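User: Please check token order:
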Amino acid sequence: MLNDALNFFVYDTIKIFLLLIVIIFIVSILRTFLPPEKIKKILSHKNNFIGNVLASMLGVVTPFCSCSAVPLFLGFVEAGVPLGVTFSFLVASPMVNEVALVLLLGLFGWKITLIYIASGLVVAILSGIVIGRLKVEGLLEDFAKADGNALSLPGLSWKQRFAYAKDYTFDIVKKIWLYVVIGVGIGALIHGYAPADLITRYAGGNNWYGVPLAVLIGIPLYSNAAGVIPLVSVLTEKGVAMGTALAFMMAITALSFPEFLILKKVMKPKLIVIFACVVGTGIIFTGYLFNWIL
């Protein structure tokens, strides 16, 4: 179990840092071509519902894990995109993407795949709308708030763009690296020492508390869709209801504890709790709905 935990910690720490560095750098380069006003115009629609839908659809085509989606989320916030819209992206990106589509299709077929994607998008869109209506912008940390400092884009050379991206990447990684290490460390301990049949034992069958318990167990864990879908297949084979297993998957991909620790540098704890409660409620409802339909 110790070897398993250490392997998880080393592998995922390296993977997350590589993803963060590459993604932040690429996003930073793209920011030099896309003025904040343009990003804001695309996602800040007069009808907030449309903005949430667009952000969720963008999440579908960006196969990030929950941790590596944070830099793009931060870029949206700094560009002045409405907070509820950015949360729709933050939920959809790790939970619904082409990786999940291919794996779910291969293991469970079209019916389960389409239901999962539709429900994931609904959770992302509604979560963003609810958080947007709560007007919680004041719960963002100062460095994450839109500052309105647009780059002088037309005159930038490639050398200047790369220099800007390097400095921005270093600045963000410097602020969040410790939280990444702590979060993955906690996830590794749980991954290595939690019994493999924990879900089957306590959330299996048709227990009324199976879905919320599966969500609570899934939150401390960390994985992307590719890593958790095979586990969902094993759980269903052992008798766990499909809705319970998929709620477990949604909780791991959209509400991971390492993600919360990274977000702690972006937003205040109260907003993290609001985010977790809103998304968690949507996932639990989806799990019950799956168990009723399937």
